[in-house]
Design goal:
The chain is α/β, with parallel strands linked by helices and 339 residues long. The protein has 10 helices and 10 strands. Helix 3 packs across helix 9 and helix 6 crosses helix 7. The longest helix is centred in the last third of the chain and has 23 residues. 38% of the residues are buried.
Length: 339
């Protein structure tokens, strides 16, 4: 524990050094404007862009390279201007996360002690602040007749009324490339105005297939676009277990994979033209899974306990990388050799 605390203190001291010394030389971020959020919000956005975005990656950067593979935008990207607060990053949960060692507990914050799901929520919040998006945590009421994961549908529907896009993540899913904005991903995945919901496929395996042998779309990461069809789809999905339209759907009230199985078994077959499925290797997986590495979105279904530490380590590496670059840039000025 002592080594973890020293690690954290060193990171915070380095960040303070940047704010005091380097802040005046850092320009406004290139991906998203500050949207008149106030001095403190602007300062935090600049700090986060400094940490995560040394390459000044923007929504129209032609390509992204990861582990030797290049991901290239279409020749004419749909989004060329930032959407800012027309995008909302959303968490939905029945838990309030305000107990000790949880994210919404006020006093005595201690990052090494923060429980794992709170680490995921912190990732979502920091990503939103880094790019000038809104962030919302939708606290839903739990019901006796359904598994708690069903509440994400109502949370999406209620939040989407106020935005062009809502990006929902489970608490054990994180943005893996903090510098890559949502607008770039919308362009890369060719999500046009006709697409209501976008999700990534599950890894190959019979357990992840519906009764027709088709891989489920994983509901741990959802991009919802505000259009009339989206609200129709969300309503049909939420009402699926009532069986007024979909006989047999009540099976998924509490049986795995709950709302995901209902969506995969019924909803997507009626609305296929308005839905997009992404490769699990890009938006649903863990870093060392051969087929599903989750390049842009990590979903740590098997390593949930490591969400906080994984995100914390990546953040510290980004920060230390920036500070090391500063050291190298100033090497000639700070290095003196004895005669």
């Amino acid at each position: 524990m002592a080594s973890q605390l020293r690690y954290l203190v060193f990171a915070l001291l380095s960040l303070l050094l940047f704010v005091l010394v380097g802040y005046s030389r850092f320009e406004v971020p290139y991906a998203t404007p500050f949207a008149k959020q106030g001095d403190s919000a602007t300062s935090l956005q600049q700090v986060l862009q400094f940490i995560y975005n040394p390459s000044r990656f923007s929504i129209t950067t032609p390509s992204f390279v990861h582990n030797g593979k290049t991901y290239t935008l279409p020749s004419i990207p749909r989004h060329t201007a930032p959407l800012g607060r027309d995008i909302c990053i959303l968490d939905v949960d029945t838990r309030s996360f305000d107990s000790e060692d949880q994210i919404f507990h006020g006093p005595d914050f201690d990052w090494p002690k923060l429980e794992s799901y709170s680490g995921g929520i912190m990732n979502h919040y920091m990503y939103a602040r880094a790019h000038g998006y809104d962030y919302k945590f939708y606290k839903a009421n739990e019901t006796d007749d359904r598994h708690p994961t069903w509440v994400k549908i109502a949370g999406l529907a209620n939040t989407l009324k106020n935005y062009k896009y809502v990006v929902f993540l489970d608490a054990d899913a994180i943005f893996n490339q903090m510098h890559v904005p949502i607008e770039w991903m919308l362009n890369y995945w060719s999500i046009d105005s006709t697409i209501s919901l976008t999700m990534a496929l599950d890894p190959p395996g019979q357990v992840n297939e519906d009764k027709r042998g088709r891989l489920y779309s994983n509901t741990g990461f959802i991009i919802a676009q505000n259009n009339p069809k989206t609200f129709e789809i969300l309503k049909a999905w939420d009402e699926c277990p009532t069986e007024t339209r979909y006989k047999g759907c009540a099976e998924w009230n509490k049986v795995r994979f709950h709302e995901q199985s209902a969506y995969g078994s019924y909803i997507r077959y009626d609305y296929n033209n308005y839905l997009k499925e992404l490769p699990c290797g890009e938006a649903n997986g863990e870093w060392d899974l051969e087929l599903c590495q989750g390049v842009f979105i990590q979903h740590m279904w098997w390593r949930t306990a490591t969400v906080r530490s994984y995100f914390g380590d990546k953040t510290l590496q980004s920060l230390m990388g920036r500070m090391h670059a500063e050291v190298i840039n100033e090497k000639d000025q700070i290095m003196e050799t004895q005669d």
